[in-house]
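Quick question, first post here. What does this chain look like in 3D?
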Amino acid sequence: MYTEQVMEHFYNPHNMGEIENADGIGEVGNPKCGDIMKMYIKVEDGVITDVKFKTFGCGSAIATSSIATDMVKGHTIEEALTLSNKAVVEALGGLPAHKIHCSVLAEQAIKAAVSDYYRRKGIDPTPIVGEIHECEGGSCANCH
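> Answer (accepted):
Ran it through. Tokens below.
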């Protein structure tokens, strides 16, 4: 049912915790399934130098949060904004169909943290980041 990569990131999550004085904090949640992800980013010269997460949710939610942080750490903000839920799923070697929404939440949590980063700098993030999409428990178009 779950790949080795999913189990590894669930049992040994990377970058878990929070960053004091984070440059951006994003929180997204899915009221239908109860998963809540909070991402913290530290940015220096346009590069995400540190990223951490706190996730309340199932094993897939924890695994997608963990791999998403790995995928953006050390990359520019622009590169981080190209992270897609499909890339998260592929990096984990797949997810069960009913857990794809977790990858959407991970993507959106990163985008929410970047949006907060821009807001703190007095920049409207919407033209850069776009709208933050909240998944409706696997029933939305972004999940499929």
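DSSP finds six helices and three strands in the chain.
Strands lie at 24-29, 36-44, 47-56.
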